[in-house]
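In the previous chapter we treated chains in isolation. Here, by contrast, the input contains two separate entities that must be folded as one system, with a combined length of 1312 residues.
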Amino acid sequence: MPARILETNSTPFGKVAVDPVTLDIIENALRNARVEMDATLFRTALSPGIREQGDAFPLIADRDGRMVVGQFGSFIDGFLKGYDGEIEEGDIILVNDPYSVEGAISHASDQLCIAPIFRDGRLVAWSAMFGHMTDVGGKVPGSLPTDAASIFEEGFRLPPVKLYRKGELQADIVRIAAHQSRMPEWFKADLHAIVASCRVAGRRVVEICERFGDDVFASALDELLARNHRAMAHLISTAIGEAPVSFEDYICDDGKGAGPFKIKCTMWREGGKVVLDFDGTDPQSDSSINFLLNENMFKMFFGIYMIMVFDPQILFNDGFYDLVDVRIPEGSLLKPKFPAALSCRTHALGRIFDVLGALLGQKTPEFLCAAGFSSSPHLMFSGFDGKGEWFQLFQIGFGGIPGRPFGDGADGHSLWPGFTNVPNEFLERYFPMVIERYESVADSGGAGRFRGGNGIHMTYKFTEAGTIAIHDDRWFVPPWGVNGGAPGARSWKRLDKANGESIALPSKCDGIQVDKGDLLHFVTWGGGGWGDPLEREVELVELEVSRGLVSADGAKRFGVVIDAAGKADAAATEALRAKIRAERGPLEVFDRGPSLETLRANCLAETGLPAPRPPVWRNAPLALAAE
Amino acid sequence: MAYRLGVDVGGTFTDLLLLNEATGDFWRHKTPSTPHDSSVGVMTGVNAVCEKAGVKPSDVDVFLHGTTVATNAVLEGKGARVGLVTTEGYHQVMQIARSLVPGGLAAWIIWPKPEPLAKLEDTVEIKGRIDAVGKEIRPLDEVDVRAQLTKLKGQGVEAVTIALMNAYLNGSHERRVAELAAEILPGVLVSLSHEVLPEMQEYERTLTTVANASVRPVVSKYVKNLRDKLRGLDMQGRIALLRSDGGLMSSEKSEEHPVSLLMSGPAGGVTGALWVARNSGLKNILTLDVGGTSTDVALIENGEPRRVRTTDVGHLTVRASSLDVKTVGAGGGSIAKVPELTRALRVGPESAGAAPGPAAYGKGGTAPTVTDANVVLGYLPEDLLGGAFKLDREAARTAVQTIADALGIDLYEAARGIIDIVNENMFGALRMISVQQGYDPRDFALMGFGGAGPLHVNAVAKLMGSWPAVSPVSPGVLCALGDATTRMRTETARSYSKRLSAATEAEVLGLFGEMDAQIRDTLKADGVTDAEIETRFEIDVRYHGQAFEVPMHVTLDSLKDGGLQRLAAAFDDEHRRLFTFNMDAEHELVNLRAVAMGKVQEIPSLEIEKGDGDPSRAKIRDHEVWADGGMKPAAIYDRSKLRAGDRVPGPAIITEMDSTTLVLPDCEALVDAYGVILINPAKES
């Protein structure tokens, strides 16, 4: 039974005409409110993941739960369908179980708060915010076990519960939840911060209603959604063809030695509607790399990508949802069945952006971006320091930004909106480590007229013994280049022990013991290149060699010969470029690098790690479909 | 006789204000700016204003100056070529920055990748390491340092920045590298991160120090040139520059620490507003400084402008104290447009600038701007006072008509829409500094200045509920007034980072004592006497583990006998006010800060002649303005003929040499004893 919303005022909202100026004012006011939600959260949260890195997502939705401002699209609809209870003024719902809310949040680490906004006894809007907590219990510090076989190993699960009931904090819920966490103080503070930020949005919405009237507000939201619908309908009809286009990419492995896992999506237009069908995606994994992908959320990803690629002027909201039909096979990697483990869904979440970019650009390759969104590298480091106090770090790293139609990808920057790195002086001050190296890796960005951004090489020297966990990907299947651009370099991790031993670490591992003095090299992937590398300006290649972003040897990938003095040799360059042109085949739209077979054959030699073994499927029909 | 001379160099005009300290008499002068060498315009102005007042330049004992020279050097990439020395493993600190791509999901697709302020090819790394408690874990390798500095020399760098890991805790390596740099690159200015910004976070500290080094030669050259020329006029008095935080510093100090000047320009407006407000008995003010391309807003509470620890210039955020001035791309020259796809009306941030300018200026501009909308609606009369400048109303109508056609509405509705949206954008900026910081805008008056502030101040005040809307005397020279009336200021900060349970009142008082002596010495060196110095102390407090602090004012007395516990309680109150909740986490004292200020200039404001409340002697002619869906009869008044106590009913337009004040229907303007216009909603009759 869906949620029942208790309103003391049953007057229906009047439909009124809203002039375009008032409409823009209301939209701006809502955007300001969203910015305020972020500011409140970052200023009051305690965990570095939220306060330093910004791993949190706000939204404001209309009374029907359609997102008007926000980032990841509305999931309130999914929550309302699944919540068998009453919702009243002053309630704030807390949930972290993805299966209870159709994947509105996709692993138990994300705590989602949803707050109805009432005025004069009527529901006028919703605000919501979710954030990634450093620890929610479960079998490993950080709550992202690479080998979990079910969600029961990944920390506590809260179905939607009332954290606030008619404005009253249900303190026992906070006590119970925080008690499960290895970092209870961070958990409590971050949760309060999320609630405070939802409340800020509530106050702002009520102020807007007071200023313009409830009917104007409700009608304005309808019109904002309709405006987006019109713009997107136009865009879809011009940018997406009726002939299906398809793209597939891979998650390298499942953390248990099997892989790669295919994500496949086919897109076509039927009349004014676009269909995105994940048929052909591999079945769910026995491990924790499954991603319970909420259809509405994927619609938003699609919409935002369309807008950014084709017309960044359009303001996005949920208005276009009925123009998009998302089909995800049950039991697949993207719609696993309960109780499949979900904690390490970050790789698939990143990878669907690569897939999306590839799909949208196929009809119009000039708008195509290369691969490199790919994943979200995590490092966990925990233990007891010299004073016997528990420490626990959860840190998000970044790879290289892909080559783009508008230019080079940035080196070591975040593809996730609003995310920042953690200052190394902060890490050194609050955790037992020295960061010996923090730089981007020369030549790791794929060659191209616009090169991919370089990945990052970060070297941690541990000054106390402890345990680490790593979550990363793109170590086996490289990030592809486009329009003649080359793939970016793959990621790698190595532990140089204080005793002289050197160990290649898998890109997904946990429970790795480290000793004082050990060095961890955490190296992320580079972005794929865009366009023919031989068309890159010679002076720019020379400049980047002098900057150490490209090596003299790496310059040859662009057909540029650098002499001993670091200058480009014009004659040799011309000759080399001519030679490459003569010898190479026609440029493909996608350059994925070597075939899977070749990657497998060379894996041990190239990565120091055995090749992943092909996954064994328990879901026969889906496995067949993915063949 | 003691005279103070305030000079503000803007993009178009250089404003000067000469003040007789004893009597409060002042003379103002406006002269075109000379962007190729702004001292030329300054000298012209100095001579002219001195002549007006009948004084000699040698009678001026303080020359006070707000300048955008540092800002422009950063924005236009005209700073020095900076060589950067970093710790081994960190030479890409500026390249990677904080890894942030501004904007939402997929914004990376269209984000223009910025070039670092210190070029990567001019960045070197050196061996040697300090750890996070300030201990040396590897000594400096001087052979390596020499080799790297020699490399920088070969690159032809014009300035050097040394920014090493954890130098905020131990600057010994930076100092030694500086000694070697002096040897290897003689005559090249060197900036050290632990001196410019002794704070944690390597990227922010490095960026701030690089920004300092980058603008240093430009500012230094500018200041020296100015000083030489002023001395050439026989002006022997002190020369002081306005800092971003609204205080003054000596021109010599500014040459060392020009990063403190990045918001010098806007700070002048705020300090000017402060002086006007003080005289008119207003304590809480929001300022609205509307220029051609942008609007600066700031908040003054209880006579104190809000300060923040960062300064935003272009896409860079440097760590230097500044007044909390927010800028939005909304000004008189902002262009209105209707994108085809959404059919929404957008205004700015693109601007017609000074050239070609709004269509109404008749300088070849055709794009519809905010100024054009103001002309169409009658808010800006065609013939500005004196007839020196005539606006082309027809051109304005033609331009705005394009918006009306695109939206399918009539000309006046389109013009009104443009004004409403630009007002809304200003409102948005004001909200960020008021409501978002926990302030209620209804407790504040709104002061409009700059070229177009008084045109918009009434409407924005109505949106905010901030009354009265204030139009100060000669709003165009308010910045120069601010320069002339502000006081010397210096501050110092120390990282303390102790939980409340580990801190003691005696230790904090001891540190504050040292800091007090240090900043007093700085001001004394700049000619302020000990008796004139006022000091203030602040402690940045947060719950342990939070990323942001709240600065709390303390006095040395209040810290005695359990003062830290009282501070914690006061912080809890402030946190609840800002964020609606408290935590049971322990309090942490993060930074200690001490501020020393010179004497407040008690310069009286001149009272104007008292009138009988009837403004009709100042009326120029009848007029009409657009309001509530139609043209309404209005009147135009000459501000110079208004007298104290005059009440001007809206709708009305009050003009003076360099600005126009719009009074809306159902509002009434009152001229106060000093000629300041205070607009309030008209009382029900």
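The first helix of chain A runs from residue 20 to 44. Chain A has a mean pLDDT of 93. Compare these points with the single-chain example from earlier in the chapter.
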